[in-house]
Amino acid sequence: MYPLIKNLLFRFPPENIHYRVMKGLRLLHKLPLGGSLLRAAFDNKTPGLERQVFGLTFKNPVGLAAGFDKDAKYIKELSSLGFGFVEIGTLTPLAQPGNDKPRLFRLPADKALINRMGFNNEGVAAAATRLKQRPSGLIIGGNIGKNKVTPNESATDDYEKCFHALYDGVDYFVVNVSSPNTPNLRALQEKEPLRQLLQHLQDLNAQKPAPKPILLKIAPDLTDEQLDDIIEIVQSTHLAGIVATNTTIRREGLRTPTDEIAAIGAGGLSGLPVRERSTEVVRYIHKNSGGKIPIIAVGGIFTAADAQEKLDAGASLVQVYTGFVYEGPSIVRNICKGLRR
Predict the structure, then answer these.
(1) Is there a contact between 110 and 256 (Cβ–Cβ < 8 Å)?
(2) Which residues lie closer than 8 Å to 108 by C-beta, 6 or more apart?
(3) Residue ranges for the binding site for FMN?
(4) How far, in Å, CA of 337 to CA of 47, rounded?
(5) Cβ count within 10 A of residue 235
(6) Nearest to 320 by CA among 62, 107, 111, 46
(7) Could you tell me where the DSSP H helices lie in 252-328?
């Protein structure tokens, strides 16, 4: 059924149809028995998939990656689709429009997306207000970043503002320094700036009555030496874990014609083309940390086999984004059934 619907949806610009579909999902959820019907159709009912990771209990290991519900507008509806957890954001202190449109592109031949959204969001305060009405039983992560106009030397202030604003509304945090779509953001992955940022957030966290897990989201384009630095910093700052990986700036091996890729221009590539590299990064971190760093794996997960590949490489949890677009609302149920088998 979904392949037919997808063919129709893919006739429309991807960003426009994303919001139309989510608004339609919200309307359906508000109808009498609408939420119950969604849960009956798509919620995972497979037992035995609970996970205890960084002090939290996940009903299943399949989450929704950041970027899909940036502003926490649809968490109730997404909860009805069976996700074990939902990560909102990336959020910034001030609202910002993001980059010029068009900024989201499909590559159907590669089962991929290219985006250069640029942290478009309504600001962290708006999301924090919505989270006061969050559904019970759903674990929510808060992915935080800096505003485009904030220079890197002041980036810590932006992350601090987001941390304080979201603290009461989320279960864990993800520090995003790996998006390719905010100028100079990835420079914060360099060893000393990153250490200082993470240590500052951990110091703030320690002052809270109940510290929340803080994770770091990294790019797939890091060298082994840079990954070694990441491992050392995460361990020395006692971070709760790593999200591996964000989108890639690489374009090798794509089936989409090169002239089409060139016409799209800059942006982060996600989906099937990043699956292998994402798994390599997960495996490298797991092996070289002695399995001591919990990892949320994201990148090219469409099926239960894809998810199992990440778990076998050392991940504790997985997230989907592009797979959700291509496989539809049954993706969580199908992955969980496959993992149980």
Answers:
(1) yes
(2) 10
(3) 66-70, 90, 143, 176, 217, 245, 271, 300, 321-322
(4) 9
(5) 13
(6) 62
(7) 258-264, 275-288, 304-313, 322-327
Res 44 pLDDT > 80 = no
Nearest to 202 by CA among 193, 189, 191, 213: 213
Domain positions in the chain: 2-340
Q: In what order do the strands lie in the sheet with 268-271?
A: 104-107, 112-115, 268-271
Percent of the chain's residues with pLDDT above 90: 95
The DSSP code for 96 is B
Cβ distance 277 to 245 under 8 Å? Answer: yes
Tokens of 304: 């239960």
- The residue whose two tokens read 């149980």 is 340
Q: pLDDT (tens digit, 9 = 90+) per residue, 208-230?
A: 999 999 999 999 999 999 999 99
pLDDT surpassing 90 at residue 58: yes
Contact 271, 246 (CB under 8 A): no
Helix (H) / strand (E) containing 243:
strand 241-244
Phi/psi of residue 243, nearest 5 degrees: -105, 120
Closest CA to 216 of 181, 192, 244: 244
Which are the catalytic amino acids? 179
The HSE-up count of residue 142 (CA atoms within 13 Å, CB side) is 31
2-340 falls under which CATH superfamily? Aldolase class I (3.20.20.70)
Q: What's the confidence (pLDDT) of residue 341?
A: 86
- State CA 163 to chain mean position distance: 17
pTM attached to this predicted model = 0.97
